[in-house]
Write a structure and sequence with these properties.
Layout: H1 36-68, H2 72-96, H3 103-108, H4 110-115, H5 117-130, H6 135-155
Helix pairs in contact: 1-5, 2-5
């Protein structure tokens, strides 16, 4: 690995697949090297701290609603909205770690995911305890591309000029 961000340099003449970098991890997820464990710990702590800070901000917003005295119905509606949006954002984020999300669906859920940001942060935290978030998906794709590349290169055998002609 010769580059600063952990992305391996492609050797001259190499046409093989390159691993896709993950956020905060680069390509250290391939061999679990160059501080992979430290990065996983930092991501876990950081996402949990961000979720906790987000909950504090939401608490201030809740207190602002109480001070405004808008009524019990609006207060319950606001709490339920954040809970439901967080649960849906958690599920969407968790699923995105195991399969590629549909871009159109993701675009239509952008507002919901923004409201349920606490759920996304918690999903990121829990996934980083197991692996780098998205590592499983990227590893499967990288290995499949490697197998496809190896199959393609083994089909080519030798110099075509030296092949025997069929008569």
């Amino acid at each position: 690995m010769s580059e600063k961000n952990g992305t391996p340099a492609t050797p001259a003449g190499s046409s093989g697949p390159r691993p896709e970098p993950l956020r905060f991890f680069g390509t250290t997820w391939v061999d679990h090297d160059h501080g992979y464990t430290a990065r996983r710990i930092a991501v876990s702590v950081g996402s949990l701290a961000a979720a906790a800070a987000s909950c504090v901000v939401l608490r201030f917003a809740y207190q602002g609603i109480e001070i405004a005295a808008v009524g019990g119905f609006v207060t319950v509606l606001l709490v339920v909205m954040f809970a439901v949006c967080s649960a849906l954002a958690f599920r969407h984020t968790w699923d995105a770690f195991t399969k590629r999300p549909d871009p159109e669906r993701h675009a239509s859920l952008r507002g919901l995911l923004a409201i349920g940001f606490v759920g996304s942060l918690l999903a990121y935290f829990l996934r980083s305890l197991i692996e780098a978030p998205g590592e499983k998906l990227h590893r499967e794709e990288y290995e499949a591309a490697g197998k496809k590349h190896n199959t393609r290169t083994t089909r080519r055998s030798g110099n075509p000029a030296k092949k025997r002609r069929r008569t």
